[in-house]
Design a protein that fits this description.
The structure holds three protein chains of three kinds. By secondary structure, chain A is mainly β. Helices cover 12% and strands 40% of the residues of chain A. Chain A contains three helices and eight strands, in the order H-H-E-E-E-E-E-E-H-E-E. The longest helix of chain A has 6 residues. Chain B has two domains: 122 residues, Thiolase/Chalcone synthase (Peroxisomal Thiolase, Chain A, domain 1, 3-Layer(aba) Sandwich), CATH 3.40.47.10; 209 residues, Thiolase/Chalcone synthase (Peroxisomal Thiolase, Chain A, domain 1, 3-Layer(aba) Sandwich). In chain B, helix 7 crosses helix 11. In chain C, 54% of the residues are buried. Classes of the chains: A mainly beta, B alpha/beta, C alpha/beta. At the A-B interface, strand 4, strand 5, strand 6 and strand 8 of A face helix 5, helix 6 and strand 5 of B. Bound molecules: zinc ion. The site of zinc ion has 7 residues of chain A, from loops.
Chain lengths: 139, 373, 347
Amino acid sequence: MPAYTVPVPRYWRRIGTYYRLEASRCRNCGRVYYPPRMRCVCGCKDMEKIRLLGGKFQLIDFTVLHSVSEDFEKQKPIFVGIVEESSTNVRIITQIVDVADVSDLEKSREVEPVFRVVKRDGNVGIICYGTKFRPKIVG
Amino acid sequence: MRKVYVLSYSLMTAGRHYDKGLRELAGKVLLDALERSGSYDVDMIVLASALSDVVEEQLLASSIVCEYLSLENVPNIRVELGDASSGAALRYAYELVRTGAVDKVAVICADKIADLVSTRANKVLSYLCDSTYESYLGVTQAAQAALMTRAYMRRFDYRYEDIAMWSVKMHEHAQNNPHAAMRRKISVKDIMSSEVVSDPIRLFDTAVPLDGASCIVLSSEPGREFKIVLEYSSTACCNASLCMRPEIDRLYTLERFRDLASKFSPTLFELCDKFSIFGILGLEALGLSERGKAPRAIAEGMFDPGSKVVVNASGGLKCMGYTVGACGGYLTCCLIMELLQDKLNVGEHSVGLVCDVAGIDRASNVLIFRRES
Amino acid sequence: MAGISGWGCYIPRYRITTREIARVWGDDPLRIRDLYLIEEKTVESYDEDATTMAVEAARRAIARSAIDPEDLDAILVGTESKPYAVKPIASILIDAVGARYNIQAVDSEFACKAASDMMILALMSVINGRYRNVLVVATDASQGEPGEHLDYSASAGSAAFVISRDNTCVEVEDFYSYCSDTPDFWRRECCPYPAHGEGFTGEPAYFRHIVSAARGLMEKMGLRPDDFDYVVLHQPNARFPVRAASMLGFPIDKVKPGLVVDRIGNTYNASALLGLVNVLDQARPGSRILLVTYGSGAGSNAMSMIVKDSVEERRGRAERLQDMLETKIYVDYSLYSRFRKLIKMLQ
Ligand SMILES: [Zn+2]
């Protein structure tokens, strides 16, 4: 078989959290977790699955990462930011794309999730997709 | 409970040891430390290594190291807690001796990273973040440290030059440390003109990933040459992603060690400074400086050798190198040398504290040493 | 009668001007502009492909239609630039939009025409009552050989439609197809770029099929160009659709609202359909639209549609194409080469 490196099940079992930003919400105290947790800090184990995808997101802060890891060697520099979903207050550390200029992020702090390729596993393996964020069109 | 003594120690200067594998690095420091302890007899070997499986594709690495020295019957184990593996291994060894489970244990702190090209090394080090949700999207430890730095600078109205002063100070301190890999003086200007790693962090303001190894032998009986007691050891954790914390510019795990300062009154410190922000926040978390004031205190030389409280007289990880799982071993060996005024003469001190940090403040280990006369 | 209940689109934010491409390849930029009437085209970012754009367009179409994604009965994709030679985009869409798993999903290929074939099949399936809602996605991130004709036009974009039995905002009155074996443009297995017959792509290919399908539909329905408010044609460049419309007897102002190629290039399967999206973004209720797609090899599908009152309430549920056209980041040919992976690397 031609060689590839990403074990497919490791990607496949994350499709819900990668594509639809599935998070877990505590039915007792309402705290929301992304990545999902089995048990809440309040001690409750009754967690329901919710989708953050349709939410409103604000960029909290960001950095321009030049010293990237090998999967992003051909895309450097990349923007790494913390975004917050406003109805759940859940914060995600993620990649910001489609940035014309750093000043873009200073002004336009509303960002939107966008479906993107995360990694192409060589010429043989699978294409891994996921959710990144980008500045939302204003006006 | 028994007293735990440091019987002997050894370290090799970190570097790009292309001619040595993990067994040669670890074997050499173990050999030196055991010889200095007066005997090859040892009840247990604990190997602190974060990367033996990732870089050398070796599980059971501790057994391979023992074989290399023909210690064929010595029980051994590897301890992994990311880049705080050393502190965790030392704490484990401390408990073994203290409780009477073993009498003499050698802790080897060793890792190899320089075999990897830089982008591969960046990827491997990003395993210190959540691989499934953070590293997957390109998030690295440096990027998170950059976010911490930005938050701190914004909150307390600092410029990056103020933060980078930490590195300048470390290079000053390292001039007296024969085991520092970087001993050249640098200026804020040098840092500001070096390449950006992750805005605002620049290359000359980070600890360079290097291969390294050190060994500390603990025992229930003191040796003949010196009497240093490992008086206390503990681990604190913050098992949450950086962005889930109320304030990202704080080291919550170190804050839990603050009362140790008044309890044991250490005057010597060796703190993890893989990025300058860690050194700064470490000072504040332990109460050595008021929140938001550490950069000023550092610039004023408040923690330089000769002061009442001395921090990172070794030059820290900044100058000794970022040896990943071996970081805490370097901090510990240097603290012992400082207490003994052996090669690292920073004045008369009897109690010192070492603290290493795993990932972005996911865990930290504290070790308190006292020199007895 | 069945029709469209939601529409949506996606184009990358990056653009390159034909002037910049001409600069690199030693062509006269004015001649190039005169030849294609294309000012600039979209460029997919390094991390975009036909799949990612399909997801974005599909999510917007579903948002406009306001149906629960679980109410989709099929997902049909038309593309000629699948990221995988074997493995569908449609199944990725199921998970990305949150559809049910017990539905039909498939990718289809007929050069730039397959997506409109999927619209017709979707219409028939909702008309016969078997399905209630079908998601149809046209998506392409097509490649042209660097420096060749196609380098000036081949671009990236996606359009998506929810075809429904109930709750429609656009009614599809009728459709008509015209196909023949005409090899004007093709790509063999494992070839990175297509080949074409230059001038042969015109008269015997594009014009013959477009005009035949449009005339066939109008004859069948007993309609004349006067009965239509908009005509939207496949647009590999801006010259072809304008000329074909004039051959059919449509004045230029009925063509213009559905002409976007001058600002985004040829988005292949999404080409005419992005023109339709632009029309739906602005058309008055009651307007009648003639849509004619074209795919090399060759064939055309013509459809007649009537815009209903409910189109207006749905416009605000997602960004308009116009907003996307205005939000752009220009790249030069170097960055374009990097984004499109034209620089040869081992992997
Ligand atoms: Zn709870």
